[in-house]
């Protein structure tokens, strides 16, 4: 009787989640450092909140509100309380501000970055785990706080290598949309669900176009897969009013504001939103951020329910090409807005707040497309590898590694069980600049062989046979153990490493 073969687990990342290698992590780190510098220039300071929050603290701002795990990943703790992975960085900040209210300065200006999680159907460019980088001002009701975030977002994109003219900060105000909804009879708490359907329909304008939005405002829409999304069931006249709102942009911000004011003339709340945009536009122009950088665009509404005033999106306007040479547009890579009600969920005394969030992965892909030096593939070199030629003298090889590390040089001892040829291949895969070789003869003489793998690869390209290789031993030198560190330093300096 033979033993049953064990069942192997399939090595596969879950749908909507991706692995990232060292090169990408290094480039993303450089991008995050640049964003951090831009935010700190505006006076924002770092804070970090956990990836898990009580579900009730996050609130149910995503679809299917009747289920605690709809839209978010949730589980029950041993005390039967529901916990959820955060779906953005804003709701956790509101909880943090309320919990630490007495000790924090007001207004409180902070930034934070980290992964967020969405329990949604994954697709091309749509992940269940992705990184955001946020900045928020909590405790100021002034439109200046909103305008400042937009100006900071513009400066951040330029710092990252996006040229002026290749991006826009598009600005709108949810109060104006509220005014439009009042005009078509969707005011009041009883119509909250339909208002949310309208809101999410408009937010899909860039992706679906006016026809798709019209369908979602009416009876509903069937997508390419055959899935049907129920619409807001608006009348044809109400649909035309909403579409007119999304198309109210004119030649400049002042003209757009006049068109919006006329559209919501019967709504005090709508007119309040127009005045807030007017103040933001004036503040931006005072800082030399005109329509070529900050543009009032009524089609911007943002999909999350908690926004209460100005909303904004950072859009990349340039066209790049994908791997197949096809033109691609990246569109929105970040956004945010005013959320004056979130802190009030935790405290009797509410605090106004506004924030901006960058979608790190999408922005990273865009920066790669324009060959931004910030995320360009940098020459990556691994550690110096000390080969093991005689396993009975492992401790001596470890001494050589220690000398290199004590001099501040990245170094490792080969820990596998292969011979020299395989060890050399290992060093190549590690992108090592050089290897240390010491057999018994070298050890008796107190010497080491140092092979420059960079020069060696270049020299090897010109060698036609094994005999030439053995005769030339390209880029390999012999030095005493005492000279080993300085010889390695010389090699690294020669290659600007």
From TrEMBL:
<dbReference type="InterPro" id="IPR045864">
    <property type="entry name" value="aa-tRNA-synth_II/BPL/LPL"/>
</dbReference>
<feature type="binding site">
    <location>
        <position position="118"/>
    </location>
    <ligand>
        <name>L-histidine</name>
    </ligand>
</feature>
<dbReference type="GO" id="GO:0005737">
    <property type="term" value="C:cytoplasm"/>
</dbReference>
<keyword id="KW-0030">Aminoacyl-tRNA synthetase</keyword>
<dbReference type="GO" id="GO:0005524">
    <property type="term" value="F:ATP binding"/>
</dbReference>
<feature type="binding site">
    <location>
        <position position="132"/>
    </location>
    <ligand>
        <name>L-histidine</name>
    </ligand>
</feature>
<keyword id="KW-0547">Nucleotide-binding</keyword>
<dbReference type="InterPro" id="IPR041715">
    <property type="entry name" value="HisRS-like_core"/>
</dbReference>
<protein>
    <recommendedName>
        <fullName>Histidine--tRNA ligase</fullName>
        <ecNumber>6.1.1.21</ecNumber>
    </recommendedName>
</protein>
<feature type="domain" description="Aminoacyl-transfer RNA synthetases class-II family profile">
    <location>
        <begin position="29"/>
        <end position="379"/>
    </location>
</feature>
<keyword id="KW-0963">Cytoplasm</keyword>
<feature type="binding site">
    <location>
        <begin position="306"/>
        <end position="307"/>
    </location>
    <ligand>
        <name>L-histidine</name>
    </ligand>
</feature>
<dbReference type="GO" id="GO:0004821">
    <property type="term" value="F:histidine-tRNA ligase activity"/>
</dbReference>
<feature type="binding site">
    <location>
        <position position="302"/>
    </location>
    <ligand>
        <name>L-histidine</name>
    </ligand>
</feature>
<keyword id="KW-0648">Protein biosynthesis</keyword>
<dbReference type="InterPro" id="IPR004516">
    <property type="entry name" value="HisRS/HisZ"/>
</dbReference>
<keyword id="KW-0067">ATP-binding</keyword>
<feature type="binding site">
    <location>
        <position position="136"/>
    </location>
    <ligand>
        <name>L-histidine</name>
    </ligand>
</feature>
<dbReference type="InterPro" id="IPR036621">
    <property type="entry name" value="Anticodon-bd_dom_sf"/>
</dbReference>
<comment type="similarity">
    <text>Belongs to the class-II aminoacyl-tRNA synthetase family.</text>
</comment>
<comment type="subunit">
    <text>Homodimer.</text>
</comment>
<dbReference type="InterPro" id="IPR015807">
    <property type="entry name" value="His-tRNA-ligase"/>
</dbReference>
<dbReference type="Pfam" id="PF03129">
    <property type="entry name" value="HGTP_anticodon"/>
</dbReference>
<dbReference type="InterPro" id="IPR033656">
    <property type="entry name" value="HisRS_anticodon"/>
</dbReference>
<dbReference type="GO" id="GO:0006427">
    <property type="term" value="P:histidyl-tRNA aminoacylation"/>
</dbReference>
<dbReference type="InterPro" id="IPR004154">
    <property type="entry name" value="Anticodon-bd"/>
</dbReference>
<dbReference type="InterPro" id="IPR006195">
    <property type="entry name" value="aa-tRNA-synth_II"/>
</dbReference>
<dbReference type="Pfam" id="PF13393">
    <property type="entry name" value="tRNA-synt_His"/>
</dbReference>
<keyword id="KW-0436">Ligase</keyword>
<feature type="binding site">
    <location>
        <begin position="88"/>
        <end position="90"/>
    </location>
    <ligand>
        <name>L-histidine</name>
    </ligand>
</feature>
